[in-house]
Amino acid sequence: MSLLQKQSKSFAASMAAASSKFAKKTAPVAIPVSSSPAQRGTPEPRMPVVNPKQPFSQPADTGKGEGLQTQVVYAIDYLKTKMDQPPLAFEAILSYLSQDNAERSWKNALSTILRRHPQVTFDSKAHNGKGGYKFRPKHSIFTADELLKTLQDYETFKGIDVKELKEGWPSVDKTIDRLEDEHRIIVIRHKKDGTPRFVYWDNADWHIKIDEEFRNHYLQIKLPTERAALVQDLVREGQLPAGKKKEPETKKAMKVEKPKRKQRRGGKLTNKHMQGIFKDYSGQRR
């Protein structure tokens, strides 16, 4: 028997021993057999079970506090749609929220939050003293004159977000287009659809009408077509072309004359009675 055959027989024996050990440790798993035929392909998604008593406009109430804050948001959105109407009664808000049968404590909490909310105005005299609720926009602007006055009263060149303006004035787009054509406001629009985004104050006096004769005369002025010719014309007129750095002027070296040193005379004479004997050699010093 060759060496290769011995190795092959030894490997087969080791594999058989390993499989027998694994079979003893692993218990057989029973596979349930269904009487219905097997389904092939992707199973169809099941439709969620819908409760007919639950309104579709609201999510399920997962908690008392969380549900209360959610109802506040729905109530404010509802008041936005009733901007052109008198203040709404609290019962009308409860009816919209489908909370007529809620607990009294829950109703009192909702009423308190709405009265203190910065986006809600509470009129205590409405509905025979019971009170009414109305949405309070960020900008109380409802006409073109009010818009222009608000923009002019700003100390700086400040604009107004059109999205905030539409909270109290949904149909402001037509007024914005008219005031823009009259050069009374400046409008910043979205690049995608051209809808107004911000508005700023503008002065019609700044838009000067130029005579047609002057415009034609200006358009008849010919400019150099080549860049080299334009640079030469500018240099000829003593002007610096754009993009060219100005060469620094060389400073002439100025000779600074040093002050001449004064010659020092001899020391102070103390023996004045011997002036006729001494000689003055100060002129011979270097």
Notable characteristics:
Arc Repressor Mutant, subunit A, 3-stranded antiparallel sheet, 7% strand, 286 residues
SSE layout:
Layout: H1 3-25, H2 64-80, H3 90-97, H4 104-116, E1 120-123, E2 132-135, H5 144-153, E3 160-161, H6 162-165, H7 173-181, E4 185-189, E5 196-201, H8 212-219, H9 227-236
Antiparallel strand pairs: 1-2, 3-5, 4-5
* Count of DSSP-assigned helices: 9
SSE sequence, one letter per element: HHHHEEHEHHEEHH
Structural class call reads mainly alpha
- Sketch the major β-sheet: 3 strands, antiparallel
Structure report:
With 286 residues, the protein is mainly alpha-helical. Among the domains are: 64-135, Arc Repressor Mutant, subunit A; 144-206. The protein is built from 9 helices and 5 strands. The protein has helices at 3-25, 64-80, 90-97, 104-116, 144-153, 162-165, 173-181, 212-219, 227-236, and strands at 120-123, 132-135, 160-161, 185-189, 196-201. The strands form 2 sheets. A 3-stranded antiparallel beta sheet has the order 3-5-4. A two-stranded antiparallel sheet has the order 1-2. Helix 2 packs across helix 4. The protein is extended. Residues 61-65 have low confidence and may be disordered.
